């Protein structure tokens, strides 16, 4: 049976239950404010936001796969595109774009020009070093880790196992903010870097 | 055109707040966790009620303010109004939502309902599940308290649930959520929040 064609982000967003973005924006702002009060250190707040985002991403990816009909086995390039066009759209109602691919195809940038998290938000001077939207980097990292892609060519050279070829790996990534509109930049730029991985070694030989 | 996001975003965020504060920062201090979650809700309610009452004149009395919460405020948040409003005319109001959206995807562990009866006399299991879902109620309680505070009304808000849906596939009535709000002077406000069980019982007995 042929898999269903992937749906566009607009179509999915129109079909899910939606709420007023203000509730979302204000709730997130209140969370960040409360975390700053409770944790005091800006770096701790960044870490906590990333962890919260990771937990959310790991759960949201199920809804993403179910509603977008995206097939599991794609490569990192396609995955990044789908996350930007479909993933962001179906949850946040905005699309991101993917640019700045490196030669090996393992690093790219997600660019967000419109971000509901930061509506009406201004950072005070006391919050130097705060990555206000760090929950997004966690979400992307968590979601990617739950998806499996074909092993990129450049990593195949690192392969150590002798048994059956492993063609798929889950994506462990490092996600960092390169540009931040709350700090005066013109867009939000999130760099997603696929970490070199060795496919899992099986403790026993294949019986085939 | 009002900007929208998917409901999963809000629900995920709320679940994460509860997780972070209850299992993370204040793992063994549920009261402190509850206060923090309620404080987050308070801020949100405060700001939202400011935005939604920008073009209106001030409310003349408590009842008008409560009606605003039940109708316009609740509609903006949940696309429906409060289903039932009761009062004892002595400062206590009970707001009832028969299909509270944020709890619609929550259910009790089926092992608690092994006998098939929600009123299972297993007190400990009931307590645990009540505690878990109770944590999710502090946020909406905070929202209401924050919204009313911005309208000039100091109060204490507590919540109670009946009829949580179960994992088992059977027909259940949707979750019913009752908010009990009581006008209190500021001096006792702090203690009211911590002993909400007392508050609810006292409100019930005064009907």
From TrEMBL, chain A:
One of its GO terms (cellular component) is Golgi apparatus. It is found in: Endoplasmic reticulum; Golgi apparatus, cis-Golgi network. One of its GO terms (biological process) is Golgi vesicle transport. Keywords: Endoplasmic reticulum, ER-Golgi transport, Golgi apparatus, Transport. Transmembrane segments: none annotated. The keyword Endoplasmic reticulum applies. CDD domains: TRAPPC3_bet3. Pfam families: TRAPP. SUPFAM superfamilies: Ligand-binding domain in the NO signalling and Golgi transport (SSF111126). Belongs to the TRAPP small subunits family. BET3 subfamily. Homodimer. May play a role in vesicular transport from endoplasmic reticulum to Golgi. This is Trafficking protein particle complex subunit.
